[in-house]
Protein: Citrate synthase
Organism: Staphylococcus devriesei
Amino acid sequence: MAELQKGLEGVIAAETKISSIVDSQLTYAGYDIDDLAENALFEEIIFLLWNYRLPNQEELDALKDKLNHYMTLNPRVYNHFEEYATDNVHPMTALRTSVSYIAHFDPDAENETEENRLERAVRIQAKIASLVTAFARVREGKEPIKPNPELSYAANFLYMLKGELPTDTQVEAFNKALVLHADHELNASAFTARCAVSSLSDMYSGIVAAVGSLKGPLHGGANEQVMNMLAEVKSVDEVDAYLDKKIKNKEKIMGFGHRVYKDGDPRAKYLREMSRKITEEAGRSELYDISIAIEKRMKEEKGLIPNVDFFSATVYHSMDIPHDLFTPIFAVSRTSGWTAHILEQYRDNRIMRPRAKYIGETERKYLPIEER
């Protein structure tokens, strides 16, 4: 039997054209993340991940129109949030349920042609933004807001969440965050999605499985934990004492280090700059200053560099987005990658069936219950 690799570290489990991480540099379909972060709309990234190329203007306009069209949910979907939209239900739990629920309203949910799968991917990508924002509003006793067809995907999310047009800086920051989180090679949730559909299960099942994987604090939940940490530090002067205590107690400092990147997360620098801009616009520059102080100390003492989660937390917080929505926002972006991986798995499928190394007892004999 093959050698055990815990966590499948270093194991190649799939071939992909979607994204790659080589020498600590992330690319989407061969495009450097630096190039895309500076220039691309999230809608372009969606098309790129699904088709391995950037769209022309006609294709981009068509995708935007479809996304805006499909963003509106069936009235029964809006209403169903009233059954469980409370502060006691984590938004990721709600998202897991609601993604499964919208499958009931897809007229082609079981039609598995390539054309229908692509159309289904558009539907899911559009509706996941509405699911997150509708849940957030319903639990606050507010009416869900329908999308504005004149807005981009990033702007529409913020509009549907807040009920007011976002600023240019907010749209820029949110679009950049969506671009940077869209895909990340064969991460835990993408692998989970591929595993689910490798049995030829449907795309909704794959996305539900991926949402469940992303929910964990070792994956998508990290940026929420970062903000909880920053909330405990009231000023730059408290940073050293706070970190001293954490380090002494051998507690994990969230937002630092990465399983794959050894020389730093290439995505972090863009959200660092957006954090500076948006905290300044919101009059909350102290959050950026605290973040920089923590970053400096962690680099000097532990040799650790922040990952993408660290600065995304202050970006979202400065837009007055509730902290427990940070991971669902990650899911909104990463759905573009999940659907890309699902489509790719369908095109060249073999059911996932690894082996396990048995380490339990052997040669045991059944005893009648009165003898046990």
The chain has two domains: 15-217+323-347, 222-319. The first helix runs from residue 33 to 39.
